[in-house]
Write a structure and sequence with these properties.
With about 210 residues, this protein is mainly beta. The protein has four helices and twelve strands. It is globular, with a radius of gyration of 18 Å.
Length: about 210
């Protein structure tokens, strides 16, 4: 489990194509200082398992499922990545509960600079739009963020100078893909209300459920 508070701006050292998988070598002195074989590290919001580590670098195998569902397949040697270790029990939850299980990818549409922050607009896949709400939480490339505006096909986020300086969101440009993970609590609520993966609950359905419980 992660919090979406990026610890380090790392770098891809090498990518080895294994046919239906890839092996990544990544540099991250901070996240590897106590890492060992079998540990988890989030890379652009994707939970990966450490195969080996040494000299401030670690290796992780990325299966076809992950490559198909995330933007990791577009990474190459020299690409910058957001890195985060799992949260420790008893620690502070600085962002929100993040699993590192990417729900889909979006595309950065435009950036609008302001005096002390920047507004970023991101295309939202139709299958995820029902989970994204104004002032709710969303993870973009592993960064826990608050949604400013939520539409059916896009959402906007406001980035402070710290986020722009210390994560890849400061160097992403229009047309670049980003990994998206919606709030898992919203998905559980939908499931508990008995909705299917392709449906969306409406107020009438919720009222009917309340009546049944009375």
């Amino acid at each position: 489990m992660f919090t979406g508070i990026v610890e380090e701006l790392g770098e891809v050292v090498a990518v080895e194509n294994l046919g239906d998988a890839s092996r990544f070598r990544l540099r991250g002195p901070v996240v590897t200082e106590d890492a060992k074989h079998g540990d988890s590290i989030a890379v652009n919001g994707v939970c990966l398992t450490v195969v080996d580590t040494g000299d401030g670098e670690f290796t992780a195998d990325v299966m076809a499922e992950t490559l198909n569902r995330s933007s990791l397949g577009a990474l190459a040697a020299g690409s910058r990545v957001n890195l985060e270790r799992p949260m420790a029990l008893g620690g502070r939850l600085g962002g929100h509960l993040v699993q590192g299980h990417v729900d889909g990818t979006g595309t950065l549409l435009e950036r609008t600079p302001a005096e002390h922050w920047e507004i970023v607009k991101i295309a939202l896949p139709a299958a995820l739009s029902r989970y994204v709400v104004e002032k709710g939480s969303i993870t973009v490339d592993g960064v826990s963020l608050t949604v400013v505006d939520a539409a059916d096909d896009y959402f906007t986020i406001s980035l402070i100078p710290t986020t722009l300086a210390l994560t890849t969101l400061g160097i992403k440009k229009a047309g670049d893909p980003v990994n998206l993970e919606v709030d898992v609590l919203a998905k559980y609520v939908e499931r508990l209300l008995g909705r299917g993966a392709g449906d969306s609950a409406d107020l009438k359905d919720i009222e009917e459920i309340k009546e049944m419980d009375r």
